[in-house]
Amino acid sequence: xxxxxxxxxxxxxxxxxxxxxxxxxxxxxxxxxxxxxxxxxxxxxxxxxxxxxxxxxxxxxxxxxxxxxxxxxxxxxxxxxxxxxxxxxxxxxxxxxxxxxxxxxxxxxxxxxxxxxxxxxxxxxxxxxxxxxxxxxxxxxxxxxxxxxxxxxxxxxxxxxxxxxxxxxxxxxxxxxxxxxxxxxxxxxxxxxxxxxxxxxxxxxxxxxxxxxxxxxxxxxxxxxxxxxxxxxxxxxxxxxxxxxxxxxxxxxxxxxxxxxxxxxxxxxxxxxxxxxxxxxxxxx
Length: 285
Fold this sequence. Notes:
Blueprint: E1 4-11, E2 14-19, H1 30-37, E3 48-53, E4 60-65, E5 71-72, H2 76-88, E6 97-101, E7 104-110, E8 116-122, E9 142-146, E10 149-157, E11 161-166, H3 172-183, E12 193-201, E13 204-211, E14 215-217, H4 221-233, E15 240-245, E16 248-254, E17 259-264, E18 267-274
Parallel strand pairs: 2-3, 4-6, 11-12, 13-15
Antiparallel strand pairs: 1-2, 1-18, 3-4, 4-5, 6-7, 7-8, 8-17, 9-10, 10-11, 12-13, 13-14, 15-16, 16-17
């Protein structure tokens, strides 16, 4: 394997490495992805964005990989980062463009201030589509017992699965302790992203996030979208809300059909080159 060039960005502290097929015609395998993303033995990131790729249904295609090597269907922060990258390399300009992900096609716009707006798609609460085991239903206000605690949750999908737990006050400690147990809970056959949701008022929510395949995360666009849609479905917020996370804030507009428009920043960090000799590191399996 030859040296690989990456562009590193973060979106409110949720960082990704962009790998352009022009620089790497072949995607690294699962073990290589784990090592490249490793905070100690690699470049360090919450995942890899591989694109732009050809697409028959959108302007460009994108594949998204978690730091454990698994593939994600969609990532709101990843899409903002990828949009910023496309503008930075001159592939896209001020006009709206579309990106195909395994979780659906989205429309993106990068404005002159550097804020990126992504039409994330429509949130569903259907157990079949998320998926969640059990009878066909909207998964709303159900009970889950993990780590000796019984909590109420709603499940949702915006192209990837989410479990949103409503709590009086969120904490990072709770996300670290219960997040991995809920991610792999048997009722979620494809695992799940996990959000702990605190409603501040009708225009503001706060979340803590445990991300499937990545772990504790400072910010997430798809998690914000799912948690915001759940809060609206429960009648707790209005259509325009701010999502507060440890890494910063995202603005959401959620319409009557639960289609979500997300707006937030993405920051360019560095150009990085990964030496293939580092793949010989035995510590990362």
